[in-house]
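In response to a reviewer's request, we include the raw inputs and outputs for one of the modeled complexes. The two entities were modeled together in a single run.
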Amino acid sequence: MSDPSRYLPQAIEERWQRRWRELDLDDTPDTGEGQPCYALSMFPYPSGSLHMGHVRNYVITDVYARVQRMRGRRVLHPMGWDAFGLPAENAAIERGVNPADWTEQNIAQMRGQLQRLGLSIDWSREIATCHPDYYRWTQWLFLQFLDAGLAYQKEASVNWDPIDQTVLANEQVDGEGRSWRSGAKVEKRLLRQWFLRITAYADALVDDLPALTGWPERVRTMQANWIGRSEGAELRFAVVAPGGSAPIDPICVFTTRPDTIYGATYLVLAPEHPLVDRLTTPEQALAVAAFRDLVSGQSEQDRTAEDRPKRGVPLGSQVINPASGAEIPLWIADYVLADYGTGAVMGVPAHDQRDFLFARRHELPIRQVIIPEGSEADTYLGEAWTQEGVLIESGPFTGLSASEARQAITDAATREGWGQSRRQYRLRDWLISRQRYWGCPIPVVHCPSCGVVPVPADQLPVELPRDVAFSGKGASPLAQLEDWVNVPCPSCQGPARRETDTMDTFMCSSWYYLRYSDPLCDSLPFRREAVDQWLPVDQYVGGIEHAILHLLYSRFFTKVLRDRGLLGFDEPFERLLTQGMVQGITYRNPHSGRYVAPADVSDPADPRDPQTGERLEVTYDKMSKSKYNGVDPARVIETYGADTARMFILFKAPPEKDLEWDDADVEGQFRFLQRIWRLVDSCLQRGLTLAPVAPEAAAPGAAAPQSAAADASAVVPAASGATPAPSPASETDRELRRAVHGAITAVQADLEGNLQFNTAISELMKLSNAMATALEQASPEVAREALRTLLLLLAPFAPHLAEELWQKLGAGADAGGEGSIHRQRWPVADPTALVRDTIPLVIQVKGKVRGSLDVPADADSATLERLALASDIALKWLEGQPPRRVIVVPGKLVNLVP
RNA sequence: GGGAGCGUGCCGGAAUUGGUAGACGGACUCGACUCAAAAUCGAGCGCCCUCGGGCAUGUGGGUUCGAGUCCCACCGCUCCCACCA
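The model returned the following structure tokens for the whole complex.
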């Protein structure tokens, strides 16, 4: 028989998980009392195994959800699967398994692993993006975009991932030109692709960022940078038509510095600019062709490196500077990008460093038109002057400040018809088509006579055919399926072909949080009343890697659907927590660069390479197979239990910081739970138990509705469900009650605003330490109050242990689940318990702490000053001199300044 | 180059937002229990010291009765963007 005095998590966790499921404890109350609260984790890709990053993510959300439930709110806490994607297709190619089957198996396995963590998830709302009853609505939403003119096809130079054999969106290529998934260097290809017009919402996406005060500043800045709005002007330069040829439209440039127009001494086009051929003179044709060949052979990476020499060739034609009237030469250069602005730049060497370098290299004139205030024009410029200043040599604008001139010149251009102000964005439209099988089919048909025809809504979903041949090469496997591809046109019934590209999986994940509000709805993606009840998400938790990708796309979707009248809010996620990485201890031989598995390191205090005996370098790194530094959550749960894993991951670091996984620390966390177990056990041995709570006082929603006052402040007199305040007799009782109610106040503060689980748990430790010494001397009522409170505060963090001890102590009259600790109300602090008769008053002399004095808690400033001056401390440090100044901070300190 | 953030014991990290720096935990040391080990319990744990104290929150300055917290400069680290005109 197992020793009842020992904490054996394995013996209790599964039992409670089963019991809670029977009681439907985690069901979402769609109606009833209490404010709705939506707690959401970013849903996982079903890779087949849960890793520590998942555990951290879901535990954070779970604790949040559990606390909100105990505080009387109706909580939606769902889970689902971001189930389309390449790994399934690759498994099909490599091992011949069907992607759908592979995905289903992985989901089943991961669902089991999640359930072992004791997460309070409403599994009845589970979704998977690869199920037809989900992707039917992804397709329906795509058609909404199409209908709104926000989805279109165009031929464009796009990012091609040579490993995954598909195109990618700009957001999915990192700063080094690598695919976010495969890590391959992407290539540029000219292809006809589907885009969503996210740029139409660029202003809204930027302008609404400041209002997202519940988001980390960092994420907001990243999004603003990514959208990259800049204000400037579009200016038109007339072309001096090459001898006798037909007149050519003026060339547009975008500039943020119209004030420097008089300094424009040449104009550059991107080598790919469509006008290049027409503007090249016969003498320059060879040179231009050669240069364009050179550029097209370069990778994006080589081309955009900042420190490269700026190469280019003149086209032979001239344009007219619209402000000065000067004829200036036209060039092409590799430092001008075809897909930003107009693909054309006015060259102002004196006031743009790139233009400066280009002009020097190609001996183009450098004309200074802005000088620092109070200085004179330099005869020799060492570099471009890019800051503010005063205009010179600028016709009627000479003498204006640069900022005045920006406005004045733009106004003049508008008046005279050679330009106007313009906003430019770095953001490009979102490329959503993928040449892969395992994704949501794009629901359109290409008809030779009708063009692009949407599949009618009543024919959705366009289902993925199950049996296809996976080659992994070239076009989507769907294109090979003649039976599937050839369909009658929905419009004219003539022969037509289905679109064979599928959607970027980020399309599926851009609206899943909306579906959870109404997961079974089969007439719409969701009903307006359901989505408006639960959304926006109160607390969203996920990794920083989605700071731009998923979070930007989801904001875009929300705004479009709002404009279509499908929902009634502007932003999907009210508060966002970006949790840090979980890192594993990593051993590396600094000479060979080889990684060594922790299991092969015999002495962690002096880690040596088992082969060479060399000293190993120790770091904490993102867990990965190649570094042998992964920690398997299943193993941790088996060894220590889910409660320990949950507590550890929350305690070890603040949630948004990276967390260094260390088995020794996990051990320490287990010891804490064991101490609580023994604490309760010793109470039971002495016959101390808790009385069952009356069900009507316990059930959330059934109890008095959570009032605004109770929500806003922890420090209100005990409400329903709380024990009547015992009248403590002894000093021990008073101290214990102070510890208990101090803990309630502190934990409450840590869970409000910023979620500081680490300090909340340390408060629980302090309380349990205080109870360990005081419980036996305390009166039974006070001891019971302490026990009850400790377990209630512990319940969201260690749900199984808290429930087990709650029941052992007899607090749950477990009928219909009302007696579960997870149906109890969150404790409310009693402010009178925190009151003390005397407080320690710090005595400072000249700002240095010299001691402290016990003084009556309610003493006024004058009394405090008198007490301080009369103290031994003052006597000693003032050496009889009266202080020049006395600063009294009531309740805190007295500072004597001699 | 532009932007955001960070720097506190051996380590992870606290510090009511200007009021006793180092909460809580880990590691470590000593002690109790034990034949022994583990577990558990108790004590210690920033540095220096002549035991009165002195010095300490990356460095240097400033504001203040009082600065980890505010201001200026510098050093170092992390992340994002970057030939974006």
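As requested, we also summarize the result in words. Chain A has a mean pLDDT of 87. The longest strand of chain A covers residues 151-161.
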